[in-house]
């Protein structure tokens, strides 16, 4: 199971805290906006693109990464501990 | 002492990881852009405004907050442990 809590929406920035339980995933979604991910744990995030290709992303606490708008994927936690990160979207 | 590491600059978003040692501070600065802070530790951040007024901000891991452009302040760590957070600025 995955849960997303919207912490902030200023109209120009939106911040969501995501938590994914072991075995859980954020279902297929498309990123309409450029975004930054700030990991809150050390973990491996499995990203499954809409075309079926996969990548394992190594998350490290506080080591951020950015992605452009347009990504369309599922993100899964195949580990044994809960996985958490904060997503910041640039809305406009 | 305080150190800031620019992790990302996409031209529209800039991400900086800040670490402030006990007794250290980020010197007086003005925020030219709207920004979000994602705390990486539980701690108290002392914010000293340019007019001398002070506020104690309780940081909790992953509990983000946003501020508009225009703030002008010093931020200090008066605790006994290093303090770390990620700042995301909306550049344009």
Automatic annotation (TrEMBL), chains A, B:
Pfam families in the record: Cupin_2 (PF07883)
Annotated ranges, domain Cupin type-2: 17-88
At the top level, the lineage of the source is: Bacteria
Q: Which Gene3D superfamilies does this UniProt record tie to the protein? A: Jelly Rolls (2.60.120.10)
* InterPro entries named among the record's database cross-references: Cupin_2 (IPR013096), RmlC-like_jellyroll (IPR014710), RmlC_Cupin_sf (IPR011051)
What is the name attached to this protein's record? Answer: Cupin domain-containing protein
Q: Which organism is it from?
A: Arthrobacter halodurans
């Amino acid at each position: 199971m995955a849960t997303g809590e919207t912490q902030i929406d200023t109209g120009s920035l939106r911040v969501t805290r995501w938590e994914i339980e072991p075995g859980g995933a954020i279902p297929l979604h498309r990123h309409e906006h450029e975004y930054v991910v700030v990991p809150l744990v050390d973990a491996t995030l499995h990203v499954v693109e809409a075309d079926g290709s996969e990548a394992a992303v190594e998350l490290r606490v506080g080591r951020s990464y950015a992605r452009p708008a347009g990504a369309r994927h599922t993100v899964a936690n195949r580990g044994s501990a809960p996985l958490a990160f904060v997503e910041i979207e640039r809305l406009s």
